[in-house]
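Case study 2.
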Amino acid sequence: MIKRIQEIPVSASSYPFTSAPRYLDFEQYGYEEKEYYMDGTANVYQSVGNAGAVEVKHQDVSYRNRLIIRTPKEPGKASGNVVVEIINPTSFMEIERMWILGYEKFMRDGDIYVGITSKPNTIAKMVEFDRERYGCLSWPNPRGDEPFPFTMEETRKKGLLPDLDIHYETGLFWDMLTDLAWMLRGEGEENPIRSFDHRYIYLTGWSQSACYLFRYVNSFAYRDEVKRDKRVFDGYLAGGGVRNLIVPVNQYEAVMDYDFRLKRIEHVEEPYISVQTESENGQWDAFRTKRGDSDYPHFLYREYEVTGASHDTMFSYVNYYGNDEDLKRIDHLPAYVGKHEEGNDYPSQFLFAGAFRNLFRWVREGAGPNSCERIPVDEFGKNRKDVFGNTRGGLRTCLLNYPTGRYHAASAIEPGQSFLDPEAAEDPLFGYQEAFSPSFLKELYGSLENYERLCREDTKEQISKGFLCREDGEALVRMAVALAKKRGLL
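Prediction:
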């Protein structure tokens, strides 16, 4: 139960962690950002069996969490779409990846963005950033100092993230999320978006947060205590889900052997779109847990596999933050650490914008979007390549249908640079790109003018299929042509 929503004042010396107006021109878009404390109580659940059923373990644990909300300045410009992001916690820093991939579409269309802290392991960095602002955040462990029923060595052997701590309880999140959805739907004084059109509530998340989304749909969204005879969320968009990671119901179940079906969606009555990149489509059990697209009433599902993009890209992980002095101060500025000259910069943001628009139309108009060809993989889950060395199939743009270089989904790194595996010599999450030679580009396309013509024709086709927003078509073509010119095509 949410007991209080309290706006946190903003000043020149105290502002939200990774505040978007510091990176983007909010005046240009006519948007504003506000941050809130969310105080309430939540239950902690435990599994009944291992296939997703849950029951209450601890009741009414008090907490304080935070929300970040971005809206049009003028309520009349709101679209009615409210996107709730489960903010990604994997790097021990709040990464609003779905905001980064979608902000251009959200702000041009009047969509509202709500980000919720999803795991208390990120609070330490927020406190380091601003102790006065974030020192009051609290996710207490109702079991006190009760030790975990496993060792940290066991968690390492299972490949789990090193973010367990008996001083907090991650399992408080499920009720926080449900209660947030119901609050955002309501007209009560506590709802900070009550003056805006807020008819449609969507849930989204990236990577580990997509796995949170899987768990929420599989274990919570259809419980009678949660639904209240209505849908909690109107639709779902999962980005970059790592399918071998099953989020435990509470952290004491971290090493539990859950049923493999919890690695995917088994039942969903609201439109659900999964968008994977080349880093995840075949790795981490993804090729073993694929689901076919469906319009069946109890399984409304689409899966898009974005060819060319890696899990992290220059746009989505590095460039957005620029040279942020605050992130440097707390030693957490995202960077590309691969040995290659250019990190992967495939513009997956355009395809995510199209996916969000397809989801919104599916929910609001009832017509499912087009299906997309999947990426073919071998028996080990490795992507199959075309004659240019790029991956075949998948959701494509002119950058791959008329390539000027190769896109790779992994990069060579120095040992010790991967937070997932300190001994790794390769980063499977952040790829790189390499250019074709000018002579090869001339042989392929003849001239820059002809290349631009081909890109425009291809982009028009992708727009007609609904995979790209019309508003992004010109920007994509300009990007492709500028890249071809940079690589020597005249």
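The mean pLDDT is 95.
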